[in-house]
Sequence to fold (347 residues):
Amino acid sequence: ELTQVRDQFGDARRSTIVENAQDMSMEDLIKPEEMVVTLSHGGYMKSQPIDDYRAQKRGGRGKQAAGTKDEDFIEKMFIANTHDYILCFSNRGRLYWLKVYNVPQGGRNARGKPIVNLLPLEEGEKINALLPVKTFDDDHYVFMATSNGIVKKTPLSDFSRPRTAGIIAVGLDEGDFLIGASITDGRHDVMLFSDGGKAVRFDENDVRPMGRTARGVIGMKLAKGKKLISLLVAEDENDFVLTATENGYGKRTPIAEYTRHARATQGMIAIQTSERNGRVVAATLVKEDDEIMLITTGGVLIRTRVKEIRAMSRATQGVTLINLDKGETLISLEKVAETDNEEELGD
Fold:
């Protein structure tokens, strides 16, 4: 009977058996999903599905505080898809790529993983800007600034070819380092702040786009011994600029008071750097309902609400932000990215 079946229906095999029906990578097996990515002040990074995050957020401040050590807090937070890239810019002017799905997942109680273990950083190199990117188009730019007052604008599309070891994003002179990087769309003003209490605001189009290997152009002329400390992109005229000095003084000033000027100037007064105040250590954009963290050389962290800091004009000395012990100075002021306000994540 089998012989009859063979003679009647036997023909060449029509299907082909191969080891791989199609080329697949590990990435093809990862589900596209919106994630909340956080980086703590201590350098610990983690991700969490947005639905899980919102569910835990309703637990209130008690649960929230369990996620980090007492001397740590969430400094950067953004939403990105598992297949998106995170551009990581270091103080040495290098760029590293990180896929969101490579960021370790963890719940509210997890600290995450040190970012230095996720990227091939050299000794003394630290990440000072994280920029989530979905597509590397020609309509957006990466705007960078260095401590010597040099700025550079490079098309986002120039960073579309990831390399494991990273690349040089901006050429730096000896002793110079990258202080910040932001993604712009060609329609906003850029603000630069120096530790001498000066600021300059100019149209980002005053800086022409240039390639990766370019050094950049002068963004702000600095007095001898002064350094650039902050790069801000003015997107909302209702925001405030919060400035702080090493002796614990500071203020918030409406962003509209910073009028537009040409780049490559010494700028206008942002806050008086008197003997009482000392040099400026931080300048950041805030809204009235934001919270900030004050950090001292003694390791003290004090969290406060922006609305509790008086709004004052540019050419003033400011008010006391923190009472410092003898020999102690304020070294940093950071906006707290994670609060009890769920709306911060958007809809």
